């Protein structure tokens, strides 16, 4: 992640969390004042907390003009740098590059909301029209010869006379971004490089729109006699969703994970489970005008051609050079070390499920749409643990309070609700909290929460920054948000979530804490490498199961009685349950991602490749990849996770190893000394130091894979380290 729009353009990536740098006004630039006067999306943020986005005034009709004007103003900033007659220095080249494009940064904040949280057919048409123009804008910067000459001059001078550490890191990262995006190519190759980026931008937009179409248009409606096994709260939510869609008296199962997953886990209607499962895992793969298979094939061809211009054999080799893994071979080595244990565990899990089905006289063979249902039966049998019983103690509001508690203990943060109406929001569901230092009262920033699924909102969960901390132009506070897709309850009902969803809630909050704790000077240093930046958020998941959180915040949604100790013990004993499923469905997606980008894309048949590769991997037939290729948005709606989906596993090695550091400490997960090191070395530096070195400063050594294997209940057979 790079922290302003121009830097993001250089990296050509769409990421699950993004950030915008400070919005300082250039007071003497009257031409910009004129350009911005009529479009609220371009204007400086005003109001409390150093200014906030005018979400209450944003309008789809303004977005096209704002983006086009913002790009014009961004290029004016670049011209000012390249036309500077003075010899290139850090101060007259790199600093203004860091500060450039502030108007476009503001527009991107609204653009991101319209794309991810409040999409509409009208916006999607505009996005499709803008995509190639945004790509052209990016190319005008990444391939600006005069600009690169100045950046290169500063870089080469710094190799002889190193700059202060943070400045040197900015120069190194900036130069590498230009280099990776073709700045050293000849004019003919630069032209083709830009053409490919333009084509890809349109393909990414179409891919995303196709998936969203299938999520919005494949809804399963149930009648009252088809509700067997479903909880009361789920039924009420499904009834409300159906009524909102004009199907009063029915019950809607939407084509999103938050609706699909609990339905498959609890519904006794096997044929309906199959229908819901098929709808979900067929997104983008229905053989119609919204089918993504041919798009993916074209994306793979263009990616390979583009990196070929730079002299790389494949896309993975190019992409991973600045990640912790460094090479696709290193990433594959980690995944292949875990894969055999994962599929072996699936075989055991399926055998347990089949035994339950046989004992019940169900006369079936376990199929993918049965896995969650019978896994739940096995969980109850083996551990006397009912997931629906656990949900009664997992209220969304209480989980939020628990996250605030953890942030207070580890980061010394206090979260205070902001009065409704004081800060503009883009939807009534969005709530805002002020984040302050508990001791000094200093404002750290604002935290926005958008928790519920709705039409026009992309699936999944993610974190975003609207403004990141920097200090090169004066200290700025942070505006960050967490976004989820919990099913909105019926009026007056509590939002009850699964343990997995509770972990995800903590995970995304970990990203927010990473944003809030940033202590860097320059916007570029707010970025990070994909196989490292998931680590901090994965680590925060561990605090959900600490005694302090369990004893204070897991209370029954009706009686407010604390969760029984006996139930907690069952949860802990079952902590490695179903790890075969969880690890295998994830790793299958990560392996397919890597293998697709290592393969020759000439005449590639995506469906056939997926099936053949999974067969070669001995993928169990009883479960699917977590993200099948035709709807794998992480990889094909942009480039943030392309050949990098393995990064969750890489980060999880760090997570398991770091968690053991807390377990070994006298104060456990709230040990003050280890917590201080956590913030100092793993959160606050962001990308201001090499992540491998940062981890060594925290742990005193490289991370080892054994902790991960122990966490998942797999045999420990390797002493590999993650470097």
Question: Could you explain the architecture of this structure?
Answer:
- There is one protein chain.
- This protein has 723 residues and is α+β, with helices and mostly antiparallel strands.
- 55% of the residues lie in helices and 7% in strands.
- Among the domains are: 5-142 and 144-180, Neurolysin, domain 3 (Orthogonal Bundle), CATH 1.10.1370.40; 218-281, no CATH class; 386-573 and 646-723, Neurolysin, domain 3 (Orthogonal Bundle).
- It contains 29 helices and nine strands.
- A five-stranded mixed sheet has the order 3-4-5-7-6. A two-stranded antiparallel ribbon has the order 1-2.
- It is globular, with a radius of gyration of 25 Å.
- The model is unreliable at 1-28 (pLDDT under 50).
Name a few traits of the molecule.
five-stranded mixed β-sheet; Neurolysin, domain 3; alpha+beta; two-stranded antiparallel ribbon; single chain
| Count of helix runs | 29
CATH topology of the domain at 386-573 and 646-723: Neurolysin, domain 3
Largest sheet features:
5 strands, mixed
* Known CATH architecture of the domain at 386-573 and 646-723: Orthogonal Bundle
| Spatial order of strands in the largest sheet | 3-4-5-7-6
Structural class by sheet pairing and helices = alpha+beta
């Amino acid at each position: 992640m790079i922290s302003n729009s121009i830097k993001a353009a250089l990296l050509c990536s769409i990421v699950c969390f993004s950030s915008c740098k400070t919005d300082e006004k250039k007071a003497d630039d009257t031409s910009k004042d004129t350009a911005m006067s009529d479009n609220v999306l371009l204007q400086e943020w005003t109001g409390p907390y150093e200014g906030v986005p005018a979400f209450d005034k944003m309008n789809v009709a303004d977005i096209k003009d704002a983006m086009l004007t913002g790009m014009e103003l961004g290029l004016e900033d670049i011209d000012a740098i390249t036309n500077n007659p003075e010899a290139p220095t850090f101060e007259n080249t790199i600093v203004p590059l860091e500060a450039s494009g502030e108007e476009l940064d503001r527009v991107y904040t609204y653009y991101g909301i319209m794309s991810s949280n409040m999409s509409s057919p009208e916006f999607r048409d505009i996005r499709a029209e803008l995509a190639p123009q945004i790509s052209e804008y990016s190319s005008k910067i990444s391939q600006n010869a005069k600009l690169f000459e100045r950046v290169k001059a500063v870089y080469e001078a710094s190799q002889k006379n190193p700059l202060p550490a943070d400045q040197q890191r900015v120069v190194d990262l900036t130069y590498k971004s230009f280099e990776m995006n073709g700045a050293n190519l000849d004019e003919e190759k630069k032209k083709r490089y830009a053409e490919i980026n333009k084509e890809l931008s349109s393909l990414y937009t179409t891919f995303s729109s196709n998936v969203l179409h299938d999520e919005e248009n494949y809804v399963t409606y149930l009648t009252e006699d088809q509700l067997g096994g479903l909880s009361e709260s789920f039924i009420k939510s499904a009834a409300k969703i159906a009524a909102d869609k004009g199907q009063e008296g029915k019950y809607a199962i939407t084509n999103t994970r938050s609706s699909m997953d609990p339905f498959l886990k609890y519904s006794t209607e096997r044929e309906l489970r199959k229908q819901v499962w098929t709808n979900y895992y067929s997104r983008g793969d229905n053989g119609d005008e919204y089918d993504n298979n041919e798009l993916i094939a074209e994306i793979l061809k263009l990616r390979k051609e583009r990196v070929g211009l730079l002299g790389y054999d494949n896309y993975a080799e190019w992409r991973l050079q600045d990640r912790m893994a460094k090479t696709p071979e290193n990433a594959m080595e980690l995944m292949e070390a875990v894969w055999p244990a994962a599929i072996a565990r699936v075989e055991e899990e399926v055998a347990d499920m089949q035994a339950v089905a046989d004992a019940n006289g169900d006369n079936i063979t376990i199929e993918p749409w049965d896995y969650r249902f019978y896994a739940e039966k096995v969980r109850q049998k083996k551990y006397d643990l009912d997931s629906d019983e656990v949900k009664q103690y997992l209220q969304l509001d209480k989980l939020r309070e628990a996250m605030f508690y953890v942030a207070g203990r580890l980061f010394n943060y206090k979260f205070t609700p902001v009065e409704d109406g004081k800060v503009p929001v883009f939807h009534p569901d969005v709530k805002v909290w002020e984040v302050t230092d508990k001791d000094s009262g200093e404002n750290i920033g604002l935290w926005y929460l958008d928790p519920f699924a709705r039409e026009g909102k992309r699936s999944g969960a993610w974190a975003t920054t609207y403004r990141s901390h920097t200090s090169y132009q004066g200290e700025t506070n942070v505006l960050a948000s967490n976004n989820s897709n919990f099913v909105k309850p019926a009026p007056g009902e509590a939002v009850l979530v699964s343990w997995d969803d509770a972990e995800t809630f903590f995970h995304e909050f970990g990203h927010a804490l990473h944003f809030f704790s940033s202590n860097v000077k320059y916007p570029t240093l707010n970025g990070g490498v994909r196989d490292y930046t998931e680590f901090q958020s994965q680590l925060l998941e561990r605090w959900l199961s600490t005694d302090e959180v369990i004893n204070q915040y897991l209370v029954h949604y009706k009686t407010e009685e604390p969760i029984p100790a006996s139930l907690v013990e069952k949860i802990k004993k079952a902590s490695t349950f179903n790890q075969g499923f969880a690890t295998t469905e994830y790793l299958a997606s990560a392996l397919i991602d890597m293998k697709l980008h290592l393969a020759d894309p000439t005449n590639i048949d995506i469906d056939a490749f997926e099936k053949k590769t999974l067969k070669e991997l001995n993928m169990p037939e009883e479960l699917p990849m977590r993200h099948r290729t035709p709807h794998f948005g992480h990889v094909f709606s942009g480039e943030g996770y392309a050949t990098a989906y393995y990064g969750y596993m890489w980060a999880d090695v760090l997570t398991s190893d770091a968690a053991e550091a807390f377990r070994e400490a006298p104060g456990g997960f709230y040990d003050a000394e280890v917590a201080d090191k956590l913030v100092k070395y793993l959160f606050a530096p962001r990308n201001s130091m090499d992540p491998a070195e940062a981890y060594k400063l925290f742990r005193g050594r490289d991370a080892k894979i054994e902790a991960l294997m122990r966490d998942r209940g797999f045999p420990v057979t390797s002493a590999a380290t993650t470097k």
